[in-house]
Design brief:
The protein is α+β, with helices and mostly antiparallel strands and 128 residues long. It is 16% helix and 47% strand. The strands form 2 sheets. Strands 1, 4, 5, 6, 7 and 8 form a 6-stranded antiparallel beta sheet that branches. Strands 2-3 form a two-stranded antiparallel ribbon. The longest helix has 16 residues, at 112-127. The N and C termini lie far apart (33 Å).
Length: 128
Amino acid sequence: MHIAKEDIVIKMAIPGAVIRQQMDFGDATGLGKISGEYFSLAAGVDTAPLFQGLDGNLCQCPHWGYVLRGQLTTTDANGKEEVVNTSDLFYWPPGHNVKVSVDAEIVMFSPQQQHSHVINHMIDKVKG
């Protein structure tokens, strides 16, 4: 799921402040502590090789985030692709890979225990 900032309903607009809110943007029930994450990713990055060996060879951690700049494409277990671009909010449910089309910077919020497992797995893959 993703949405452009301009498509998010304005709940309040007053001089100096605009509040937009997208309801039902994922479910964090029972996920424990959440980590805030900032990723800088170059065009061409593909997580598929780094996720080999994880359940389904996919990241099984959900993420909520915002694209500061760039373009990324997620692919789920069924092969469905979704593109997110600069200024999009996104929710990536468990079971995805990510490819970076245009140099990107993103902010994400993830269940820290689950995502730490994925990050540590990627670190081990890079070490060989």
